[in-house]
Amino acid sequence: MKKLFLYTAGFIAALFALVLLAPVAGLLVSGLLLAAGLHYYTESKSTFGKVMSLVLALAGLISALSNIPGFIGLVAIGILYYIYKSRKNEKVEIFATTEKEEDPFTNFEREWAKLNN
Is the residue at 117 inside a domain? Predict the structure, then answer.
């Protein structure tokens, strides 16, 4: 019964992801506009350049925030990824954390050994 529910949810999420593929592409373009505006803002030296790049970034932000179907498509793609990983019995880690050793000399010795090999 659990597999039936999993496959049904995967089928529905796949339909949502396919239907909302164009809004996800629009969300990608909006994100690129926002990133380009912020990049050119930090690189610009003139006031006019800063203002125009902020206008570009603001247009990208407003476009991205108004694209609610794109966010729903991203959630559907995330659900598909989770179902795919759970079907293969792999652990899904959203935020992967690595445990660091407390002794800095141990880390140094390990890195030094990697460099010498």
Answer: no
Tens of pLDDT, residue by residue over 72-104, are 999 999 999 888 888 777 676 666 666 655 666
pTM: 0.66
Residues 6+ apart with CB under 8 A from 4: none
What number of CA atoms fall less than 13 Å from residue 54's CA on the CB side? 6
Range of the domain at 82: 2-92
Q: Distance between CA 80 and CA 77 in Å, rounded?
A: 5
Number of domains the chain contains: 1
| Local structure of residue 36 (DSSP, 8 states) | H
Residue type, 97: T
